[in-house]
Amino acid sequence: MTDLAALFHAHLAERQRTAEEALAATGFDALVISSGQAHTYFADDQDAPFHATPHFIHWCPMAGPHHVLLVRPGHRPRLIRYAPEDFWYEQAPLGSPFWASEFDLEEAGTVDEVWARLGSVTRAAYIGSETDRAATARLEANPAELTARLDWHRTNKSEYEVRCIEEATVLAARGHLAAKAAFLAGATELEIHHAYVQAAGVADQDLPYGNIVALNEKGAILHYEGKRKDLRNGSVLLIDAGAQVRGYAADITRTVAAPHCDPRFAGLVEGMDRLELQLCNAVKAEMPYGDLHHQGHLAIAGLLHDHHILKAGAEEAVEKGLSRPFFPHGLGHHLGIQVHDVAGKQGAPDGTPQPPPAQHPTLRTTRTIEAGQVFTVEPGLYFIPMLLRPFRTNEHKDLFNWTLIDELTPCGGIRIEDNLLVTAEGHRNLTRPHLPN
User: Fold this and answer.
1) What is the pLDDT of residue 92?
2) Does the pLDDT of residue 263 top 90, yes or no?
3) Hey, CA dihedral for 355, 313, 301, 280, is it positive or negative?
4) Are 140 and 160 in contact (CB under 8 A)?
């Protein structure tokens, strides 16, 4: 396996190249990126969990706020590390990380000193949240076109980035296996969550997003946040949970039917797993992601028809919008430093928008699939009363098996999600080697 330092060296060379290209296209001579500042809760003295500026993480995996990076064409990147002396909070020493030799690295003990060391940088853009300091330094904060160009280049992942995502996947897979075992043993949502984080070896604040641990009907709430402590021996578990390594995320969802689950719903779960793998196998470069999403609707409509939930065939059901209340979200999204990674709806590097088609308004990415992209494939099938309600009385009401729908609604929903790397030959599923089912 290639050494991590070598992968990072190649990754940073590409960052330098694309940054120089973006600066030239937008008329700037330099780029300043800070890791950002913590957010303090209103009328409080506690900070929210800190998330670094994603563009800073794209260049450097160093944790913590107030670090500043200076990028100039033809120069090594300059990194000013904020390293205060502090007895209130632990300040871990830098040590000798694999990435440090790639930067001209210096340290400053205060935020004022960090920016004083940066000095005067002319015709420079700034990316980050410390906009007051950027204004004082006469930097143009977060210019739209430059940001769009940097976003565009984040969608194609380097080998270093793929390594980070794969390492995160290993942790997440351990968590999912433990969560499944806890569920089948009759655990509550909170206990399942605890089993996940313990097996993954992470604290809650280190997760890339709050775990969705939904039993039964709560699986029909797409971003369910509860962790019920009183419900045991659930019939269905929907768990959407990930992990992150060096700022890069894995994002995995599984749905598990207990032995006592309604066999009709358990059959849908099995069908959705096969369907998701078929959609993954269809991924290839030069395919518009919207086409893959449309295939997902056709496949889900066909599954609903085969299980006697819809009376219309797949083509008719999709044409009339009958699959949409069961599958109301996009098939997937770009994945990387941010779980819902950037530039999914850009039509060009300059930020030209490429909105989703009217037939599929919830798409998170409208891009053409390219080698090097990493994205999720996550078809869903849910029984959501509020979305189904209008169809009970409209012109298509007789195309639904309402008796069966009402009987299955307490089971909630199904989502299966894998993370895929697109290759020149097709794709590589980053999830299934570590979490086969």
Assistant:
1) 87
2) yes
3) negative
4) no
